[in-house]
Design a protein that fits this description.
This protein is an alpha/beta fold. The protein has eleven helices and twelve strands. The chain has helices spanning 16-28, 38-57, 71-85, 101-112, 130-136, 159-165, 240-255, 257-277, 305-314, 334-340, 361-379, and strands at 4-5, 65-68, 92-96, 116-120, 141-145, 172-176, 195-199, 210-214, 283-284, 295-299, 317-318, 350-354. Strand 3, helix 4 and strand 4 form a beta-alpha-beta unit. The longest helix is centred in the last third of the chain and has 21 residues, at 257-277. The relative contact order is 0.17. Its EC number is 2.8.1.7. Residues 4-365 form the Aminotransferase class V domain. Keywords: Iron, Iron-sulfur, Metal-binding, Pyridoxal phosphate, Transferase.
């Protein structure tokens, strides 16, 4: 039985060209980028080239790219770093109730440190109201952090409108763009974004590497202490092989963006059509017309998420109940709870299917047929 991977929002298979690029670095370029001799200069050149590639992918300056160990560290650095550096201006932060736990748990920590955090509500379509941001702003607001694309529903937030709103306010604007990068065109200048988070393993790159875009005007405290790497914003010898792999993954993602979007959207539509043809009772959670091509979150009335995931796995289907960080948890999805309320059935019967490089039209059809068969059996 073919194992079919439908959990690309959690992580993606690494591209063969990425592996080749990383192997070459590990084999031939072992110098420390901070060293002044020829070995170090060779490593520094690769580091600088990668930084420039990543900066161009979001229309930023290479001086504004800070390499991190991934999305979680980048979110922590953006939120805690700016909160501590700007506390004299105020202690109020705005975010949403449906953020990734890398943001929510960071906010909870800041609340323990005396910061006031406003958690904006989410509509049933999975989007926030920009007017809610406006109403929440005060003279003490120093940071607004709103994810670009929700990791469970795939719903796109009105980031550009929020950026416009904040143009005349002191608050910095951070967005976790981990799920958006590679599928949505990002221009940090046009969108009024001050900080932006990206992770390589979501775009067929290696795990353990990401970056934080930090506009040069942002006052940011470092959270690590050591050397002067990353313009003193993130100490520690850079993960050069991971960074070069990240660069290659970004190059591939940018080259094939429109093709991949069309392909993934066709997978999503085919998957849903087969469920319909099989007479499956289901609802798509969130505004499907305002979601990225690769992700769909589906509620199956009369089922429970634990039974669904167990049976899917037994039938060779890899899917998720939401964030990879909470996979296996019996707790209701905090994202769907924010959208529909605590008592709503969909918070405990919904599955996220996310499509990508590991899929073909054939295995999407096969996966949908298996899912339909399982749901029919469980609903009886």
């Amino acid at each position: 039985m073919e194992q079919i991977y439908l959990d690309h929002a959690a992580t993606t298979p690494i591209h063969s060209e990425v592996l080749d690029a990383m192997y070459t670095v590990e084999k031939d370029v072992f110098g420390n980028p901070s060293s002044v001799h020829s070995f170090g200069r060779k490593a520094r050149r690769l580091l600088d080239e990668a930084r420039l590639t990543l900066a161009r992918s979001i229309h930023a300056s290479e001086k504004e790219i800070v390499f991190t160990s991934g999305g979680t560290e980048a979110d922590n650095l953006a939120i805690i770093g700016t909160a501590l550096a700007n506390r004299q201006k105020g202690n109020h932060i705005i975010t949403t109730a449906q953020e990734h736990h890398a943001v929510l748990h960071t906010m909870e920590r800041l609340e323990q440190e005396g910061f006031e955090v406003t958690y904006l509500p989410v509509n049933q379509d999975g989007r926030i109201n920009v007017e809610d941001v406006n109403q929440a702003l005060t003279d003490a607001t120093i940071l607004v952090s709103i994810m670009y694309v929700n990791n469970e529903t795939g719903v796109i937030q009105p980031i550009e409108k929020v950026g416009e709103l904040l143009q005349k306010h002191q608050a910095y604007f951070h967005t976790d763009a981990v799920q958006a990068f590679g599928l949505i065109d990002l221009d940090v200048t046009k969108m009024g974004i001050d900080m932006l988070t990206v992770s390589a393993h979501k775009i067929n790159g290696p795990k353990g590497i990401g970056f934080l875009y930090v506009n040069e005007k942002v006052k940011l405290n470092s959270l690590q202490f050591g050397g002067e790497q990353e313009r003193k914003r993130r100490a520690g010898t850079e993960n050069l092989a991971g960074i070069v792999g990240f660069q290659k993954a970004v190059e591939l993602a940018m080259e094939n963006k429109s093709i991949r979007k069309e392909r993934y959207l066709s997978y999503k539509q085919a998957f849903l059509n087969i469920l319909k043809k099989n007479g499956i009772d289901f609802e798509v959670n969130g505004a499907i017309e305002a979601s990225i091509a690769s992700t769909v979150n589906i509620s199956f009335p009369g089922t429970k998420v634990e039974a669904l995931l167990t049976n899917f796995d037994l039938e060779g289907i890899a899917a998720s109940s939401g964030s990879a960080c909470t996979a296996g948890s019996v707790e209701p999805s905090h994202v769907l709870t924010a959208m529909f309320g605590k008592a709503h059935e969909c918070t405990t019967n919904s599955i996220r299917f996310s499509f990508g490089q590991a899929n073909t039209p054939e295995n999407i059809k096969e996966a949908a047929e298996r899912v339909a068969k399982i749901v029919k059996r469980l609903v009886k």
